[in-house]
Please model this.
Amino acid sequence: MIRFAYIEVLWGLAAIPLFIIIFMVVRRWKMKAIAALGDRKVVDMIIPRVSFSRPWIKFVVFLVAYTFLIIGAADPRIGTKLEEVKKKSADLMILLDVSNSMLAQDVVPSRLENAKRAISQLIEHLHNDRIGIIVFAGEAYVQLPMTTDYSAAKLFLNTISPDMVPTQGTAIGAAIDLGMRSLDFKNGTGKSMIVITDGENHEDDAVAAAKSAADKDVMINVIGMGSAEGAPMPIYQNGRETGFRTDSLGKTVLSKLNEEMCKEVAIAGKGAYVRATNSNSGINIVMDQIGKIQRKTLDTKSFKDFEDRFQFFLGIAFILLIIEFFISNRKNLRLSNLNLFEVRSATVSPAQTPIKKT
Model:
């Protein structure tokens, strides 16, 4: 198995087409300049030592040397030992509230952005566990199916916004039910959900949904976003804040954290509840709870030892660059005058000339 320690260095190979284009443009310009001097045979007599083929040879050698140099700089490594590794895995589903109330800024920079940072921090602590993301407001949708691709998880996380769910509300129960349908109960791994919400305007029986999940050994943990005092909900247009939401009387609406409901959901789901603050997202407490769930041991094969092979590529690149340096653009007059296929007529001496008899 081959892998690169610095795979981003391989982007340097993208410069090869640029080198070819530059060489062809300069080459064409030189040929036009030489053609402007007159007939090709006359020009060859004027500049007899100029070679038209050696620049091509030098350029090809340079490209090959550059390719080996980039590959060597990326530090290719070859796996030399294959072994079976036992890994413990669990399934973790994130249920993220994306209702408009999550835009309130009593948690800096906002409840939603703080929640996304907490999820990103959680992903960085995962190793072999699978993770999925469900977004919900008045309805719930699977944003990311269960996966071990943590890079994809962060990519999907960055695209989350309240605009994803047109129906407003806080359907925590629907999100839990959707999470239960999205989990694979056949693989035997431990399972847990993390509900991140302000709990405001909840529309269904979230407590009953959490209890039903706990009965199937799925732990429900809750992170509360917001404050008891509440904060206004900003309105955005084209990415700019234009004001705050108001009620029918024109008064600014304050969104408050429904902490009691969040606690009830956590208790019913046999998990933990923690309220996020500006200094602590609460993700560490939740991670401690997740660490208690049973994980399934998986047997996987992987290469343990890798040996560096960059020295071979750099050595070849160095030799080719030396060769390219010593290839001259001028012809070797001795070699150019050498014609191995020239046929000369034999000289006949006078003594060998036959005498005609009369």
Notes: Residues 85-301 form a domain with the Rossmann fold fold (CATH 3.40.50.410). The chain has two domains: 2-79+308-337, 85-301.
